[in-house]
């Protein structure tokens, strides 16, 4: 008796499953289901195990991709987009510890209170803010990319609305990874923030970063 040929849908499903790409893994599940239906309907091909492998493996990878993207959006992207804004809101509401936790370096509560007091004196209470979408992207050196894709650190710009003044510009240095002993440690915090004020002088937090900021310019 001649051995049945492997169903082509099973082959396509397996190849898609091992493609290690979200679109392919989703397609692998669909192709796997299509293979099972085709094998059962026609009965002249085989490949049920391959189809089930594609369905299960594709589902697993799709779930991992989905979970990873959800985690990234909640823990990293939201912090990049709203980190300095949330920190100032928390600080001005009296939650100094949450304000300080947004930064890589620990400082004294006196330094934090001094910065927040100066901020309130010059601009009032923060009402809202958002990342400046008009700011051009800053080129990142290849040696500052994690896995060749994700910036280890980046300078970002925001526009804030205060009770005393609108369109206040804030610059911040975000650090996703810290390079320690030749390796990368997940940081996901800000190194410094700078509130631009041409009349009274820029406000920088932490204060210890004033000299560093001057040097970077």
Question: What features would you highlight for this structure?
Answer:
24% strand; two-stranded parallel ribbon; 6 helices; elongated; alpha+beta; 217 residues; single chain; 5-stranded antiparallel beta sheet
What is the strand and helix layout of this fold?
Elements: E1 5-6, H1 8-17, H2 22-42, E2 45-46, H3 48-92, H4 96-100, H5 109-123, E3 126-131, E4 145-146, E5 150-151, E6 153-162, E7 168-180, E8 183-195, E9 203-205, H6 210-216
Question: How would you characterize this protein structure?
Answer:
This protein has helices at 8-17, 22-42, 48-92, 96-100, 109-123, 210-216, and strands at residues 5-6, 45-46, 126-131, 145-146, 150-151, 153-162, 168-180, 183-195, 203-205. It is an alpha+beta fold and 217 residues long. The strands form 3 sheets. A 5-stranded antiparallel sheet has the order 3-6-7-8-9, with helices on one face. Strands 1-2 form a two-stranded parallel sheet. 25% of the residues are buried. The model has no long low-confidence stretch (mean pLDDT 86).
């Amino acid at each position: 008796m001649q051995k049945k040929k492997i169903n082509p849908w099973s082959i396509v499903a397996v190849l898609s499953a091992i493609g290690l790409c979200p679109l392919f893994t989703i397609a692998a599940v669909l192709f796997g289901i299509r293979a099972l239906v085709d094998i059962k309907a026609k009965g002249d091909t085989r490949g049920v195990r391959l189809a089930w492998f594609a369905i299960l493996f594709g589902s697993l990878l799709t779930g991992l991709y989905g979970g990873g993207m959800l985690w990234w959006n909640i823990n990293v992207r939201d912090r990049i987009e709203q980190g300095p804004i949330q920190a100032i809101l928390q600080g001005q509401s009296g939650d100094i510890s949450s304000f300080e936790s947004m930064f890589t370096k620990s400082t004294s509560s006196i330094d934090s209170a001094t910065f927040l007091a100066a901020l309130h004196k010059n601009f009032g209470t923060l009402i809202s803010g958002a990342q400046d979408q008009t700011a051009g992207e800053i080129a990142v050196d290849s040696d500052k990319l994690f896995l060749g894709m994700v910036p280890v650190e980046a300078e970002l710009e925001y526009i804030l609305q205060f009770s005393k003044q609108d369109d206040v510009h804030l610059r911040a240095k975000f650090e996703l990874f810290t390079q320690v002993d030749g390796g990368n440690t997940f940081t996901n915090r800000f190194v410094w923030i700078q509130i631009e004020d041409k009349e009274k002088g820029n406000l920088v937090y932490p204060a210890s970063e004033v000299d560093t900021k001057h040097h970077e310019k």
